[in-house]
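Lines hold sequence, tokenised fold; shown next:
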Amino acid sequence: MRSLKTILSLCALTLAAASASAEVVVIVNPKNPAAALTAEQVAALYLGNTSTFPDGSAAALADQPESAGIRGTFYEKATGRSAAQAKATWARLTFTGKGTPPKELKSDADVKAFVASDPKAIGYVDSSAVDGSVKAVLKL
């Protein structure tokens, strides 16, 4: 009985590690002229330092839910900050009237649908969610 518990625990840890190492992909609408973005460009958007793509067109940011593990992974890899630090940055920008935080959506599917429906949109999803309805511009 004890060995079964050990095996189940190891399986759970393995699954958790596999999901934690999932690849995060930044996506835009296929009509967006950007072929690729750097982590610095994405960080500038998601930390409120700019509200436009490199070509000067306005950006509409999509975010994952606070409870989603991908959100923390994205902010750490793209911005070098935790999701909580990014949220604090947006709280300050919102309070001072200098920015509007990304639109929080419920899932990869919702982020992908939002990006696919708006040429100005940018978001991030697990690499397994990417299909022809969106364009990948950065893998983290």
Summary: Residues 6-20 have pLDDT under 50 and may be disordered. Helices lie at 2-20, 39-46, 69-79, 83-95, 108-117. The first strand starts at residue 24 and ends at 28. The chain is about 45% helix and 15% strand.
